[in-house]
Amino acid sequence: MKSPSKAGKAVYLEHFGLESNPFRLTPALDCFYLGAERRELLAGLTYALTQGDGIIALTGEIGTGKTTLARVLMSRAGHLLKFVYIANPSIGRDGLLLALANELRLPEVGHGASLPGSIQRELIRLHAAGRQVVMLVDEAHEMPAETLQEIRLLSNLETSENKLLQVVLVAQPELETKLATVALRPLRDRVTHHFRLAPLSLSQACRYLAFRVRRAGGSVDIFSLEAAKLLAQASDGHARRLNILADKSLLAAFAEQVDQVGERHARLAVAEVEAQFRVPAESVSASGAGRAGRVRRALSVLLRPGAFAPSAGVALQSMR
Q1: Reduced DSSP (H G I as helix, E B as strand, rest coil) percent helix, strand, coil of the chain, to 5
Q2: Which residues, other chains included, contact 309 with Cβ-Cβ below 8 Å and sequence gap of 6+?
Q3: Residues 6+ apart with CB under 8 A from 15
Q4: Contact 74, 85 (CB under 8 A)
Q5: What is each CA distance from 187 to 101, 219, 281, 283, in whole angstroms?
């Protein structure tokens, strides 16, 4: 089941009456799913930022939609806040300061002691003009400890009443382990809110499929109930994996020139992922035995997922 060419892709969309690809993997702000308490989580993040809280953490397993949620946040709150987006977490301390200076459009300042001072003066100027600056760091769990320490120091910049710079750390759960180390406990103590993005439950994943198809201009019954349930279960509730499986199952149905994805097409999609990563049956634990276990193991290779959570929810936890 090969992915079609560009021309073939157009036929695939036309065949199902779709205006666009409903399961593309790039963050699609126009297709952001606000179910499964995502709407509440977005509102909580926005509220925390508008209240001027210093450091906020957003964690979730890979593929649950953290980056898309962060970009939706920037899009919707951009008129209230000035966002500085840091996409490269592997940068060192100086790299972070330079990236922040560039995003603030500071004149060429170079390295050295003058850089933090220049940043502070610009943050003071923006604050006086009524502009609150938020630095959003994606994949923050990959950030070196030295750079995280610099974030703590930057979060200390404040007036007598307000923070000059707020920070959102978007990361996998490994960030929690990193912040628990002795060296980074001072940073953890400054995290005022911790939002957790949970995987989709079975029913939520089925609704997610219908939502994405509907936003692409298609009919919600493109997937049979049996196919939707099978794909949702095989994805472990991770939106990115669900997108991959759903796209492959649509291709399987298109290859047979049928108008609905059935259980057979869903199984073909799941089997392709399983075969692609050559997961031996004997490597699956007893608790994950059989096809479903092998599929989850194959997808683990693909997307490095975490454990499956049977229900979704938003956890707001103070880490003080």
Answers
A1: 55, 10, 35
A2: 198, 199, 201, 237
A3: 254, 257, 259
A4: yes
A5: 22, 48, 44, 40
Query: Going by C-beta distance under 8 Å and a sequence separation of 6 or more, which residues neighbour residue 110?
Result: none
Q: Per DSSP, which regions of the chain are E strands? A: 55-60, 81-86, 132-137, 165-171, 191-197, 314-317
Rounded Cα distance between 200 and 207, Å, is: 10
Evaluated on CA atoms 213, 217, 221, 222, the torsion sign reads: negative
Q: pTM of the prediction?
A: 0.79
pLDDT one digit per residue (tens) for the chain, 320 residues: 544 444 445 467 989 999 989 998 777 777 788 887 889 999 999 999 988 877 999 999 998 889 999 999 999 888 889 999 999 888 999 999 999 999 998 876 655 557 888 999 999 999 999 899 999 999 999 999 999 999 999 999 988 888 999 999 999 999 999 999 999 999 999 999 999 999 999 999 999 999 999 999 998 899 999 999 999 999 999 999 999 999 999 999 999 999 999 999 999 999 987 777 654 444 434 434 444 454 444 444 444 433 333 333 333 333 33
DSSP class per residue in 155-176: HT-B-SSSBSEEEEEEE-THHH
- How far, in Å, CA of 251 to CA of 266, rounded? 10
> Superfamily assignment of 38-197 in CATH?
P-loop containing nucleotide triphosphate hydrolases (3.40.50.300)
Residue 212 has phi, psi (to 5 degrees) of: -65, -40
